[in-house]
Structure formats: C-alpha cells, structure tokens
Amino acid sequence: MNDEYVLMKGNEAIAHAAIRCGCDGYFGYPITPQSEVLETLSLLKPWETTGMVVLQAESEVAAINMLYGGGGSGKRVMTSSSSPGVALMQEGFSYMAACEIPALIVNVQRGGPGLGTIQPGQCDYYQATIGGGNGDYNVIVLAPNSVQEMADFVDEAFKLAFRYRMPAMILSDGVIGQMMERVKLPEQKPRRTEEEIYAECPWATNGINLKNRKPNFHSSLESDPLLMDKRNEALQAKYAKVKECETRAESVSCEDAEYLLVGFGSMSRIAEEAMHLLRNEGYKVGLFRPITLWPFPERELREAAKNAKGIMVCEMNAGQMINDVRLAVSCQIPCDHYGRMGGIVPDPVEVVEAMKQTTLKR
Amino acid sequence: MTKEEIIRPENLVCGKPTLMNDAPMHYCPGCSHGVVHKIIAEVIEEMQMEEKTVGICPVGCAVFAYRYLDVDWQEAAHGRAPAVATAIKRLWPDRLVFTYQGDGDLACIGACETIHALNRGEKITVIFINNAIYGMTGGQMAPTTLVGMKTATCPYGRDVNLHGYPLNMTDLAVNLEGTAYVTRQSVHTVAAIRKAKRAIRKAFENSINGIGSNMVEIVSTCSAGWKTSPVKANKWMEENMFKYYHLGDLKDVGKLKD
Predict the structure, then answer these.
(1) Where are the alpha helices (DSSP H) in B92-189?
(2) CA B77 – CA B81 distance, rounded (Å)
(3) Residue A48 and residue A138 share a domain
(4) How confident is the model at residue A2, as a pLDDT?
C-alpha cells in the first residue's frame, strides 16, 4: 500500500490518478478552472512510461468523440473540462449512452450560464443528472468533496463505467479542482493487455479475433421503431439496476438529527462546518452528502431524515438538487434552499443564518 | 439459359469479396457508394487486414456501411468521424483505421475535425464521397454543390451571392503539412474503378506504415438527388463535376517533414 502523502491540487490529483489506474488515453481541450489536468499529464509524459496516450484535441466536441472512439474500442479513456466545455460535449454523452460505451468525463464546474465566470459553481447538476443531450439516458455521476476523492474516484468511475457499459462523470467544481490538500495517490496499476481487453470487452471495435466472431459495431441509429423501443427498454433496465446497486452517500451526525443540511461537493464541506457551529449552539443538525448524484441516494436520504422536521439544501446554484431531495422524501418534510450563484463560495456563517431564518423555525 | 445455369461457379469471372455480406444495400440505383464499398473490401482482404481494421462511418447515406462490410465499425456523430478515428488509431497504432464520409459530413459539419485530424498527420485514411448534394435528407445543398446547380434548398441554382462558393476540401488538404497522400478519383468506368482501388490501397498502406494522413476523394453520382437517370448522372458528372473537381493524385510525399 502506498502510504506517502503528497500536497497537490485536485486537478493535478486527477492527472496522477489517471496514469496510476492504468488509463489508456486522455483527450481534452484547455478551459479554466481545470487546465492543470492536461498540463500535468503533458508534464508527466505517461506515453513514455505506461504508454498512455495524451492528446490536446481541437475542441471539446472532438474530445468527446475521441472518447466515443477510444471507449468503443475497449480502452479506458477520459477527458476533463469545465461547464461551457461540457455543454459542448452533450451530444457525445447521448451517443455513448446509446451505444453503451464506457468512458470517464470530469467536469470541474464554474458559474454560468453562458461563458459565466471562471469562479466555482455547481450549476451543472441538472445537466449532469438528467442529461443535457437528447433522448432517455443517464450517466453515473460521482461528486468528490476533497482532493483525495478526486484521486480515488478516477479508478472508481472507470470500474462503474465498464461494469455497466455507460459513461461515468466526476462532477467536481472550481474549489476542489484548484485547492491544494494532502492526498494519498493510488498504487500504479498496469494498463490492460490486448487479451485482457478482449476478455473484458468482447463488444469492442478493435478487430481482435474477427475471423471467429461476428463483426462488432457501435451505432445509435435504429430505423425500426419496435427495435428502438426494445433498445430503450434494455437501457432503462440497466439504469434501474444501477439505481438499485450503486448509490453512495455520507451521513454525519444524522442519528439524532432534527434538522438536516444536504450538500454535495465543496458545498458539503461548508455545510459540515455550519452543522458544527449549529451543534455548538445546541441545535440537533445533521449533514447528508450524496456522493452519487445519479443515481441519487434516495433510500440513504430517507434514513438520514427519518426524524427531521426540516431540510436545508445548500448548493452553489439556484436550486437544482433540492428537487431530488424533495422527491426522495416525497415532499413529506419541508425543504428550504440556500444557494449562491455567479462564482460566490458561501461562508458557513451564511448557511447558519439561513438555517436560523427558515429551517430551524419549522 | 436459366439464371441458375449462368451463375455457376465456373462461369464467374470475378467474385464478391468475402468481407462483403449478402445484406441488401439501401443505396439507390446508380449510386457510387456500392462500388466504393466493394473496392474497400477487396483492398482490406488483399492486405489481409481483416482482424486489424476499424472503419468509421458517417451520418449521411453511408450511415449503414457497417451492415455491408464485415469488419468492426463505429458510426460517428455527424461530422466527427476523424476525431473518432484519431483516438482509435492512437490507442491501437497497428490498426488500419479509416473514415468513410460524405460531403455534408466531412466538408460542412465536420470541417473542423477533418482539417485538424489531417493536419496532425493522424495515420488514418479519410475516404470522401463527394456527390455535391445531401442524399439521405432528400437533396439539399452541400458545401460542394456547384455554382448554378439546383437542389432542394437552392431551387434556383447555387448563387454565390446568396450561398457562397463550393468548398474544395481536398485541394485544402493538399496544403496541410500532415497529409502524405491526397488524391481525387471516381468510379464511373471500369478504368476509373481500378484507379480508385489503387489509390485506396496506397492510402491504406501509408496508414499502416505510419506515413501521415491520407485522403481519397471519390467524385460520385447521386442520380436520385440530382433527379436524373444513372447513365445521365455519369454524363453530368463528367461534364460538370470533373471541371471543378479535377481527377488525379494531388499530393504524394513519401514521408512527412520532421
């Protein structure tokens, strides 16, 4: 086991973790606040060590389609970007979901809409969880709240993406991407051999053993509505399984909680501090942090909120995850929202004040 | 003589490449796609690259190309085939990776991906079917539609003041330092088919030998889109298309600059 701690940015941790977990290829386009991912990879030159391909694409559109090609051929491929860039990639998400192609996309979010700001934001929650592309599809979304989780979630996301043959996303934000923390990097794993890829991905388009099998192809087009209906049913059955098996969440001091703070990513760190401040004043407040945003950890939230009189959802957006929280508790518990937009990272004291004005009165 | 007597094996003068299956093609009568599919299948077979080939098909008439040629295929989003091919080739450097794209896919919506993949010198082959029209969507104006040519979206003829000029992507590709072999062919006669096949073979060999990016344009007919018969379409192509899109090798360098 690797016991050595290093100090680095979340974006740098993503790059190191990608090399160490045996990633085959990174394809990306520079955009603030995540350019350190491609910069770090370019500096580390993994093509000389593990053989990992690193390519600066001509656009985010090209980058996501490189993932479609690379993932479709059975390789572990990834990209990273920030909000406006991820918006450009949405067509590719839809195609990969339709063709059941695994890949990892990292979104280090900034404030929007439009070009918005290069400061942190969490306003791509809807885009990530209910899809920005066309059609009925989902991608697995993991939300790290530390530099350590930025590193750990790379391998985890790849495992989920290949287990279910679908894109997985790490939905981070400018705070986690840019801040430096101590991190224990994963052990160096070898990249898979051709034989291992063929065993794991018999559906992949790479020509291996073609003479003894039917040709493989990836296509999202289906002209027969009955067949298209069946394909959609199969996708939905898969998503139901992911919802059943892969929800992840963290509950802090929820056992006796009369009030619940709910936040993901960097906002969960701020909410946790607010929780401690309120506990010091005698309020029984707990923190619930969804780690998978899709599938949303509904059962875990219901358990954490079983004694709650009120829930405060904190996000760096106008109120997006709050709707999943309301659905999870079937609107049986009143839900309030505290959100800041435009790249403002709220102070825990602001959350405490918002709690006192609304949720704690319930 | 009955049909069965005619198609006896001993009467065959040439065979269908084994990589081509028996699925009925959806292409219209007189269309060039079928011929180009066939010569690609022949070249892959002759090079014995069946187990090392990945084709990327476009959005457009060739969207179903994977149904007819028994190699591994990916169908790319509209225009993105060169990006898809870039990743596969870089991740599987000993594979034969080619894109098969029409004029709308390659020269319009995918112009950015095409130029950048070619300019990076990706070791791929881009096969470019140029019939100067959008076939699959029913005959709209393409970036390669000739001046004065009538389509569903320029029913009075392409007017440069209204629609701009035809985009000659292959001439553009010649000037990119990443391209090794750039050629423009056709498949309207037996002689032309043989030349086109030789061109595809050369491009595929370059791709395997890691010599730059390679582009083979096939000036093609679309009798349905041009609203004429297959024979007249060939004639119209010779008289009009070849004047603007000159046939022949446009660039052939054995090696890229360092």
Answers:
(1) 103, 111-119, 160-163, 169-174
(2) 7
(3) yes
(4) 67
**Chain B positions in Cβ-Cβ contact with residue A55 (cut-off 8 Å):** 86-87, 90
Q: Which of B20, B91, B116 to mutate to test the interface with A (most CBs of A within 10 A)?
A: B91
CA distance B129 to B106: 9
Non-local (6+) Cβ contacts of B223 within 8 A are B28, B29, B30, B31, B229, B230, B232, B233
Residues belonging to chain A with any Cβ–Cβ distance to chain B shorter than 8 Å: 24-25, 27, 53, 55, 57-59, 61-63, 65-70, 72-73, 75, 77, 91-92, 95, 204-211, 215-221
pLDDT tier at A1 (50, 70, 90 boundaries)?
Answer: low
Over residues B5-28, mean pLDDT: 89
Which of B51, B74, B90 minimises the CB distance to A72?
Answer: B74
CATH of the domain at B42: 3.40.50.970
Q: Would residue A311 count as lying in a domain?
A: yes
CA A268/CA A289 separation, integer angstroms: 6
**Pick from A69, A91, A208: which is nearest to B84 by CB?**
A69
Q: What is the pLDDT of residues B198-252, one digit of tens each?
A: 999 999 999 999 999 999 999 999 999 999 999 999 999 999 999 999 999 999 9
- pLDDT greater than 90 at residue B13: no
Residue A23 pLDDT > 90: yes
* Structural domain includes residue A295: yes
Instruction: Give contacts of A219 with chain B, Cβ < 8 Å.
Output: 63, 66, 73-75
Domain boundary among A151, A175, A194: A194
pLDDT (average), residues B71-88: 98
pTM for the predicted model, two decimal places: 0.96
Chain B hits for A208, CB-CB cut-off 8 Å, are: 51
**Percent share of chain A, pLDDT over 70:** 99
- Cα separation, A264 vs A289, whole angstroms: 5
Number of domains within chain B: 1
Amino acid at B29: P
Q: What domain count does chain A have?
A: 2
Window 81-120 of B, Cβ < 8 Å to A: 83-88, 90-92, 95, 112-113, 116
